[in-house]
Amino acid sequence: VGVTRPVVKHNFLVNDVTKLAETVKKAFYVAQTGRPGPVVVDVTKDATDPNIKVPYIYPKKVEMRSYNPTLVGHPGQIRKAVDLLLKAKRPMIYYGGGVVLGEASAELTELARLLGYPVTGTLMGLGAYPATDEQFVGMLGMHGTYEANMGMHHCDVLFAVGARFDDRITGEISSFCPHAEIIHIDIDPASISKNVRVDVPIVGHVKKVLTDMLEMVRETDNRGEAAVFALDSWWSQIDKWRSVKSLEYDRSSDLIKPQYVIEKLWEVTKGDAYITSDV
Length: 279
What we know:
6-stranded parallel sheet; Rossmann fold; 2 domains; alpha/beta
């Protein structure tokens, strides 16, 4: 069992067949709740002895005192996050695969449009926010767009949603978002401030936390002319970075570029098909 610990979320050892049903129930519960991950159930040979007959009763509920994932974000932390977002002059919304796993695409999109802030996503998060939306500045990081990376570097408030700040995103940690106060929503408390120190941590299910934030923003959004002017100036700067067209490619060659193929497939299918590619 010990050899699996570095690569699984949890592991169970079953040496009593009467505990098997309960353990399997717990294994699925742990695997599917909180931050999803693989769970190992190691069943000993003694527990599979065919001569031992016991009734298999699959429990309806799970009781685990040592495992109780937080689903609802702390109201005080959510309030701090909303206040910080509404005061931001150069904000960025940065989302990751947690939005996909948490099925929070609709909530993220609604909040982003309500705030009017630029949005960038990781490779694991692509698809959670509509890539055709004018607020989307593309994927960030090593393989990302110029405007997304420049926006991250110069922002004063970074709102990270279901993202883990891996090295493909941050690069050199000491120079990552040097001017920003960082808000981070994640269901796994161990992931918060793990790679990058955050100023406003919120532990909870991303869908629930975003729903609470939406309600609070609607109630307290009192941004005035100065805030509107600051945001307009920020968008003007982002549009200058966009004008670089970092994803542009040579169209004069006789060779068919992969970018061209993807573009034409998207045009033909009108965005209704799933098209995948590698980095």
